[in-house]
Automatic annotation (TrEMBL):
This is Uncharacterized protein. It comes from Strombidinopsis acuminata. SUPFAM superfamilies: TPR-like. InterPro entries: FKBP4/5/8-like (IPR050754), TPR-like_helical_dom_sf (IPR011990). It comes from the Eukaryota. PANTHER family: PEPTIDYLPROLYL ISOMERASE (PTHR46512).
Length: 289
């Protein structure tokens, strides 16, 4: 069977057959060459494969679909990241715009869903966390890393706004902004806050029993300042409830100690803060009146 030398099929076959075919290139205009060439086993295999041609329109459509798919992946990843502890957000925030980060986070999210795990728990697995640290090192490796513009992916502004979490770690926010933002802690970290809060509350109660109003007020103020700046990850409902209850008790005790020292404004502010946590708190209502 004769195959035209100039056809795409012949060009593909020549490429697939390597150096031996190139050595015979001087004979490609002779029918005898092609008759012999077509008898080669590798050519017979290649002839059975279908060549796929992709038009520019098909390629553009595929690129558009891929871009939309990556965008949806970013929104899915961001939704899950917002449920994670602040230290995880701080790790991922500077490198979220890089494709290598998004691809790996999507892989981790798919694995977490398949395994029935929370995304935040999956990210805390040593092999995953160490891989994220390795990606960070690769991105920041200067001219030898992947921090070039080709490695970046255009990220939606609303997603990047969510990733600005610096205020999470600063009591009262930055320059008065976002005063209600709290640092989000994982189970181990929030337990440390609860233990320390309980210690401060106990010391304040002991001082109050001994009529050391100033010492009691100092401890309750310390407890308030600490507890108001933290919350647990959303799925840690028990810990969040315990933290809220402890904070409310600390505020009520703070109001009571302030009343003992005739610090009326301090007492009112503490009672108002307790009522924000529970609008029908009887102790807070009584001390405010």
């Amino acid at each position: 069977k004769y195959l035209a030398p100039s056809s795409p099929r012949s060009a593909a076959l020549l490429r697939s057959c390597g150096s031996s075919a190139r050595a015979m290139a001087k004979d490609v205009r002779k029918p005898e060459f092609w008759n012999k060439f077509m008898q080669r086993p590798e050519v017979q295999v290649a002839m059975k494969k279908k060549l796929k041609y992709e038009s520019y329109a098909e390629q553009a459509q595929r690129t558009k679909v891929d871009k939309l798919e990556r965008k949806q992946h970013r929104y899915d990843i961001m939704h899950e990241l917002m449920q994670c502890a602040t230290n995880v957000k701080h790790l991922i925030s500077p490198m979220f715009r890089y494709k290598i980060t998004q691809q790996y986070l999507w892989k981790v999210l798919c694995e977490a869903r398949k395994e029935g795990l929370l995304f935040c728990d999956k990210l805390r697995q040593p092999q995953v966390y160490h891989r994220l640290m390795a990606i960070k090192a690769e991105i920041t490796a200067g001219p030898y890393g992947v921090a070039g513009w080709q490695a970046e992916e255009e990220v939606e502004e609303d997603l990047m706004d969510k990733m600005v979490v610096e205020a999470d770690c600063i009591p009262g926010g930055i320059d008065g902004e976002a005063p209600d933002r709290k640092q989000v802690l994982d189970r181990r970290e929030i337990q440390g806050v609860l233990d320390f809060g309980q210690q401060i509350k106990t010391e304040g109660n002991e001082a109050f029993v001994n009529e050391n109003w100033e010492g009691a007020l100092t401890r309750y103020c310390q407890g308030d300042e600490m507890l108001k700046n933290f919350r647990a990850e959303p799925h840690l409902q028990k810990e969040n409830k315990e933290l809220k209850t402890m904070h409310r008790a600390c505020l009520n005790n703070k109001a009571n100690a302030a009343l003992k020292m005739d610090q009326w404004q301090t007492a009112i502010r503490a009672a108002d803060a307790a009522l924000k946590l529970k609008h029908d708190d009887e102790k807070a209502l009584f001390r405010k009146d």
